[in-house]
Amino acid sequence: ADNMLKGDPSGAKEIVKKMGNHKDTKSHNRHIGKEECKSMGLNIIDLEEMDATKKGECCDLQDCLLTLHHAYMHTFSSSSALKIVENHLGSGNTMIING
Prior knowledge:
4 helices, two-stranded antiparallel ribbon
């Protein structure tokens, strides 16, 4: 209600109910597709439909975000990293479970 649904918070409780329903979501890392998110009432921006947006060294925002996503998924699948936290200052932290 304060962020993604600011201006139209009426659906926030229903979205939380759907996202928090273990029967439907099954696990924390389950992929929830764009269309399913839209049907819940989340405001989704289709990057495929955006004009090419230059951001820093990136000439195509969708391509840069997809590359970043793949880098994270590769890191998670080939290491014991559980969480990667980065900030706007360019520094980050990787939490790793040893054992």
